[in-house]
Amino acid sequence: MPTQKYSARFKVKSVLQALKYPDGVAAYCRSKGISDAFIYRWQSQMLSNADSLFTKPSRATQVKVKRLEAELQRKDSIIAAVTEEALELKKTFALKPYKRLSPGDRIELWDMVQRYSSYGWSRQGICRKWGISIKTFYGFAEREYRLCDRVERVQLQTITLEEHQAAREYALAHTELRHREMAYRMIDEDVAYMSPSSVYRILRDYNLIPQHTLRKRDNKWDPHRSPSGADEVWQSDLTYICYRSRDHYLLLFLDVYSRFIVYWRLCLQMTGETVRDAFADALDETGQHPILQTDNGSCYISQEFKSLLSRAEIEHHYIHPHCPNENAEIERVNRTVKEGLDPVEAESFAHLNQLIKERIEHYNYERYHSALGYVTPFAHRAQIVGSVPN
How far apart are CA 249 and CA 236, in angstroms? Predict the structure, then answer.
């Protein structure tokens, strides 16, 4: 819908009537079918231009205006004189507008330029005789040059038929390779030289792209399910603790049912060997055989850690990627432990280890847990199994 335009007289009249309207500006705008925002905008414009309307310009301003008007008149007279002179020159030399050349005329012009250039004729002079601009000549000269000499451009990046066939045969002989690795292997083995994207297009044309297989997950496992007893499901996680400008890693193993931290260790590295040794000690100290649930951290998916789980016949389940809420219990424990811990107070690594131990003992034996009916994890676990690890 086009925007309606209002004259200056209408704007001034509407502002004055709206300000005098007994029911207010909004009622006046509704009666006239216009927006009240227009009234306030026009009022603001009137107030901002009040000085130019009611204030007489100063002597210096008047002199400046007259000087600018005289300068404008002088430039107008110069433009008129130049225009008149150009028209006279056009009549005198009978200049014609530039014309369009047919394909035959273009070839003839190019031949003439080639022949007459050796006699001192410039391209601009020849184009003036033909009645065309030099820009028009340069626009088609390269194209006509290729046409006359029958020169075909060859793209250096074009994949030849032999390279295409070599890439296909190499792909059939190495079905385990993907297109990126295959491209660089063919270069190293002097088979074909092409980019990974070109290899991918060739494989796609022959339907030779290997299907990506995702890691199978146990659909029966529900990470949010509540265990029926103590030591049925453990959760494990690593959290960062910065001490003296270096990251240390607090490794925790939590019994989901009783919320009791069954084992912990402050590690200097986050590797598969570190987590493997800590979990082995946790199994030896507690004597339990739980189901372990972790995230997809590099230490939990390492071969070192998997080998221990295989020997101990421990059932291991991963949470879904980017879903830390599936490990909500131990994530909340990480926060609780770190809230009352200030690494700056530690005088040494051993002292930091002692502070963490005190904080975990406070969590296990003194802090009331709301999810357990406001009893400590120690008391809740003692009611179930009758004893807890030291």
Answer: 12
Q: What's the pLDDT tens digit per position in 155-198?
A: 556 788 888 899 999 999 988 888 899 999 999 999 998 999 99
How many residues belong to the chain? 390
CB 253 within 8 A of CB 238: no
Quote the CA–CA distance of 89 and 93 in Å, as a whole number: 6
* Among 245, 305, 312, CA closest to 283: 312
Q: Is the CATH number 3.30.300.30 carried by domain 233-385?
A: no
Question: Side chain identity at 108, as an amino acid letter?
Answer: E
Mean pLDDT highest for which of 50-59, 101-110, 225-234?
225-234
All residues at 6 or more sequence positions from 125 whose CB lies less than 8 Å from its CB, including other chains: none
Contact criterion met (CB below 8 Å) for 274 and 300: no
Q: Write down the pTM of the prediction.
A: 0.46
Query: HSE on the CB side for 98, CA within 13 Å?
Result: 9
